[in-house]
Design a protein that fits this description.
Elements (H helix, E strand, L loop, with lengths): L12 E2 L2 H13 L3 H8 L4 H7 L3 E2 H14 L8 H13 L16 H13 L3 H12 L5 H28 L1
Helix pairs in contact: 1-4, 1-5, 6-8, 7-8
Length: about 170
């Protein structure tokens, strides 16, 4: 996994995009933010990721290790884990399996461009799979964008059929 690096004059600091997304993804699995922060030994790190432009490399490495340890483990079913899952669902945070490794660390504008390129190259059947994934609760950025494009194309096809049948009548 690559992290978006800061220019060379900040060798110990990196941009927090992927770090926040990793913590959000763990919350979507049911790992409460406070529990993640406790395990990291960094209270309030999640809030700092929201407003700081850069984060210390040591903190970033700790978040990456935590994510690597927990991304495929469901926490025990507690009130806190259910609340974390519900909160993440309300906010639309993707689960770890819904993030592509090459996308998770991209800045927002680069992420949007990468997703757009991938969606543009998808077949109608692939777009339909994205829609099915969304119907089943998928929240990954590619599934969201693919489902949106599927609905757009489906609507355009329907309008085209309606125009064709109106001309034939």
């Amino acid at each position: 996994m690559k992290l978006a690096l800061v220019p060379d004059h900040h060798p110990r600091r990196i941009r927090p995009y992927g770090l926040r997304r990793r913590m959000e993804a763990l919350a979507a699995l049911g790992w409460p933010i406070r529990e993640q922060e406790r395990r990291l030994g960094h209270p309030n790190v999640f809030c700092r990721l929201a407003w700081q432009q850069y984060i210390q490399r040591s903190t970033a490495e700790a978040i990456k290790r935590l994510y690597s340890d927990l991304w495929d483990q469901m926490p025990s079913d507690t009130y806190g884990s259910r609340r974390a899952r519900a909160w993440a669902a309300r906010l639309g945070w993707p689960r770890p399996a819904e993030w592509d490794d090459e996308h998770i660390d991209l800045p927002p504008d680069e992420l949007a461009a990468a997703i757009t390129r991938e969606v543009e190259s998808m077949s109608y059947a692939e777009l339909r799979r994205c829609q099915r994934d969304r119907d089943e609760g998928g929240r990954g950025p590619l599934a969201v964008a693919g489902a949106r494009e599927y609905r757009r194309q489906k609507s355009a096809r329907r309008r085209e059929r309606e125009r064709g049948s109106a001309v034939a009548a």
